[in-house]
Design goal:
heterodimer; A: alpha+beta; Uridine Diphospho-n-acetylenolpyruvylglucosamine Reductase, domain 3; Enolase-like, domain 1; 3 domains; five-stranded antiparallel β-sheet; four-stranded antiparallel β-sheet; 11 helices; globular; B: mainly alpha; Ubiquitin-like (UB roll); DNA polymerase, domain 1; 2 domains; about 5% strand
């Protein structure tokens, strides 16, 4: 490991309340959940943070429940827990589908939904699902709890409106009507970072979100509008190709991503027809 | 056991406990060579701080004591060649439920990479160990 562990400090709160107090009084601190992203940075010496706070033992942030029509997922719910949850299977099966394609079983046992959001990678596989589901993020600090729409959370590449003294406490998903669809395209089925990932919901207000084609996960309002107005799929494809801003990187090329994104749109529309 | 709270579970096992059966491959959760069972669940020990393993039961390859049916089956079926992925493979396989189909076995091992065997002999070993009645 390229980071000297003896110089790293870890605060270990016993409750969410204590954690929030520590973040207020003893910050800045990097919150730890399942560590599947943080330790990649520590192992390669690319993470400069020296002070951390361990949220993993705080079971109060792990529950998945349904209250008043809202599916509430604790930020510490792991991918394995999402895959096994009957509530998720019933309400938002594409979230379980996304969780199944993240890493292998070892990552699924530790990686958390809150961590995927906080890490903010444009390739985060659960993020397009939360975008089309129009999830709300419950952000807690010692001073207040506020709710921020997932679709206004990211402000740029790996940047968000989360304040230094705040944590993502839960993800709330309102009732989702319509047919849900999810597809990840990577080099192999498991353990691959996405080249392109698309989540869609087909209803009278079609919703589409893409990952890995812009600095953040994005919704495609113009493409959604074209589909809602009954435009032919060929036209929707052209609108989509103009709406995304993919880049060339080590996983893929912009041209490939543009073509595949349009193909996924067409597949989504065909699979959810009728 | 005393160790810095942010020390990787992998390094605590190898350096503090002297249990060098757990291997480091990629150091980023891609290869699964460092897989151990934490309270019975496969995890990558290169991605876990010591603090998060405290109070948990950690099972390494040494904990199977060379007597697990999977270990025997890996030997008989040629499921190991260079051997560096083998401890992680066996521990990931140990968490796959009895009676799993080949697809389920492949899914259970999706987080473990082997560059020698082409996997076929590994799957065969697991199917064999899993189909046999044992303790």
């Amino acid at each position: 490991m390229r980071t000297a562990v003896s110089r790293l400090e870890l605060l270990q709160p016993r409750s969410v309340r204590e954690a929030l107090r520590m973040l207020r009084d003893e910050g800045p601190l990097v919150p730890l959940a399942g560590c599947t992203d943080v330790y990649v940075g520590l192992n390669f010496g690319t993470l400069s943070a020296k002070r951390f706070i361990d949220l993993w033992p705080l079971d109060e942030m792990r529950a998945i429940r349904s209250t008043g029509g809202v599916l509430s997922i604790g930020a510490l719910a792991t991918y394995t827990e999402l895959i096994r949850s009957p509530l998720v299977a019933r309400r938002l099966p594409i979230l379980a589908a996304a969780a199944r394609e993240i890493g292998g079983v070892q990552i699924q046992n530790r990686g958390t939904l809150g961590g995927n959001v906080a890490n903010g990678s444009p390739a985060g596989d659960s993020l397009p699902v939360l975008a089309v589901a129009e999830a709300m993020l419950v952000l807690s600090s010692a001073a207040e709890t506020r709710r921020v729409p997932f679709n206004s959370f990211f402000s740029g590449y790996r940047k968000s409106v989360l304040r230094l003294d705040e944590i993502i406490a839960a993800i709330e998903v309102p009732r989702v009507d319509g047919r849900q669809w999810f597809r990840k395209v990577g080099t192999r089925a498991a353990q691959a970072i996405s080249k392109v990932v698309l989540a869609g919901i087909r209803s009278d207000r079609p919703r589409i979100a893409l990952g890995s084609v812009a600095p953040t996960v994005i919704r495609l309002p113009k493409t959604e509008g074209a589909l809602a107005s009954g435009a032919p799929i060929e036209e929707a494809r052209r609108v989509l190709e103009g709406e995304i801003r993919p880049i060339d990187d080590l996983r893929s090329t912009a041209e490939y991503r543009r073509r595949v994104s349009a193909n996924l749109l067409e597949r989504f529309w065909r699979d959810t027809a009728g | 056991m005393q160790a810095p709270p942010m020390k990787r579970l992998l390094d605590v096992l190898r350096e503090e406990c002297g249990l060098t059966g757990t291997k480091e491959g990629c150091g980023e959760g891609e290869c699964g060579a460092c897989t151990v069972l934490l309270d019975g669940m496969p995890v990558n020990s290169c991605l876990i701080p010591f603090a998060q393993a405290q109070g948990s039961v950690v099972t390494t390859i040494e904990g199977l004591e060379g007597r697990h049916p999977l270990q025997d089956a890996f030997v008989v079926e040629g499921g190991a060649q260079c051997g560096i992925c083998t401890p992680g493979m066996i521990l990931a396989a140990a968490a796959i439920p009895r009676g799993a189909t080949l697809d389920e076995i492949r899914l259970g091992l999706a987080g473990n990479i082997c560059r020698c065997t082409g996997y076929t002999s590994i799957y065969r070993a697991i199917e064999k160990a899993r189909s046999r009645r044992h303790r």
